[in-house]
Write a structure and sequence with these properties.
This protein is of the alpha/beta class and 419 residues long. It is built from eleven helices and 22 strands. α6 links the parallel β8 and β9. The chain starts with 20 loop residues before the first strand and ends with a strand.
Length: 419
């Protein structure tokens, strides 16, 4: 459970019921957190629960049409062991660099079901993609001759889809990835000309497969996601009329959010499943060769992870309690509020301890860095803590270790475990 203040008129965090708590101690992967800390040999660390990862994929499979392929966007969490697990659960992996491509291939992902997106792909990365046989989501005309050159040099087809910058945004998304001027994708209005160029380059090894649309991320409103999917499908259908070959791949993006902050509630999947079923039925008639793909990262892994730091000191400054830990923004930038929050809000948090403490108090959980930004929880109501207790930040399975400045101030890296 989260431990935000329970004032009657104040928003609270959604319950963190995915992790049991037994006698005040968090259970992750069926193991007591204190034991996991001994197994790791140090704090801080990240822990990801295999059972929760499998359950989330099963939940999606049950809610979405079977015809919709489920891809994992591994930028959310590229830990190799986790990617290996996910590769066996989902239908494909989406990568954003040659480094991620190597992890995905090493994890056993099928190259035919790997797609590569990113606005600044280097020539060597495009060549690697052709050599590996993965699908490249082209984001600029600059990439086309480079792909053709690689295709001719290697004697292999360059599989391409066009990443579309649509003329709409995903309403209510935490991060807008399409609509208006963007560095991502090719503006929808110029795509007919780009597709004509691809058609002229077919003899150079370019193999057109379809479209990739990603309007935004971290959305908790099912109606907004459904609207974006409908608009994305309609746009792809219009573009298909000028495509140099039948559409075989249609990535409708993702945007599924998880509740991080007080007042937020979990995303309702049923309306999204019904909406996708309607689109599947339309595609069977209108784009009969196309596979519909949903690309998810945070939604698949975010709720299955925790960040764990040890309380080193308990100090009171002018009446405010500070729990000083060995973890902080250098390991978990997003929880500190410095990964895109406009107004800083607390992630759900708790104190895991074996002392059976029941008293509660308002406390701030801070780290070891010499900056006031090193704040993991700001005046939250938590179980009263002492040095040695373990501070837990929930919703930490996505954009954690790999999205944080771990070299900052030289405190060292943060281990990750999959249990």
């Amino acid at each position: 459970m989260s431990e935000s203040a329970p004032a009657s008129n104040k928003p609270v965090h959604a319950p963190m019921a995915q992790f049991p708590v037994q006698q005040g101690e968090l259970i992750v992967g069926g193991q007591r957190l204190s034991v996991l800390a001994e197994r790791v040999g140090q704090t801080p660390f990240y822990a990801y629960d295999r059972g929760l990862l499998k359950a989330r994929v099963a939940q999606l499979r049950a809610a979405l049409p079977a015809a919709v392929k489920l891809h994992y966007a591994m930028k959310a969490n590229p830990m190799p062991a986790l990617v290996g697990l996910m590769a066996g659960l989902v239908d494909g992996i989406d990568v954003a660099s040659a480094g991620e491509l190597k992890v995905a291939l090493d994890a056993g992902a099928d190259p035919a079901e790997i797609s590569f997106a990113g606005p600044a792909k280097r020539a060597v990365e495009l060549r690697q993609s052709v050599a590996a046989g993965v699908l490249v989501n082209v984001e600029s005309e600059r990439e086309l001759p480079l792909l053709a050159e690689a295709s001719q040099a290697l004697g292999l087809p360059a599989r391409v889809a066009l990443r579309v910058n649509p003329d709409f945004e995903l309403k209510g998304s935490g991060m807008k990835m399409g609509g208006g001027p963007k560095q991502f994708g090719i503006d929808a209005e110029v795509l007919p000309e780009v597709m004509a160029r691809i058609g002229r380059m077919a003899g150079d090894g370019l193999a057109f497969e379809g479209f990739h649309l990603f309007a935004g991320s971290q959305n908790l409103k099912a109606e907004s996601i459904c609207e974006a999917q409908q608009k994305s499908y309609e746009l792809a259908l219009r573009l298909a009329a000028d495509a140099p070959a039948p559409v075989r791949f249609l990535n409708l993006g993702g945007g599924f959010g998880i509740p991080y902050f007080p007042g937020e509630t979990p995303l309702e999947l049923a309306p999204i499943g019904a909406n996708l079923q309607a689109l599947v039925e339309r595609a069977a008639r209108e784009l009969p060769q196309a596979s519909l793909v949903i690309e998810l990262g945070r939604y698949l892994v975010g709720e299955a992870g925790v960040y764990v730091a040890r309380v080193l000191d308990r100090k009171i400054s002018r009446g405010q309690v500070y729990l000083v830990t060995d973890g902080g923004l250098h390991h978990h930038l997003s929880a500190s509020g410095n990964f895109g929050q406009v107004i800083r809000k607390n992630y759900p948090a708790m104190l895991s301890q074996t002392r059976g403490e029941t008293a509660r108090e308002a406390a701030s959980v801070v780290g070891p860095l010499c900056t006031p930004l090193d704040l993991l929880a700001d005046r939250m109501e938590l179980t009263a803590a002492q040095p040695g207790d373990l501070a837990v930040i929930y919703q930490s399975g996505a954009y954690g270790a790999s999205a944080s400045p771990q070299a900052f101030l030289g405190h060292g890296g943060c281990p990750e475990i999959l249990v």
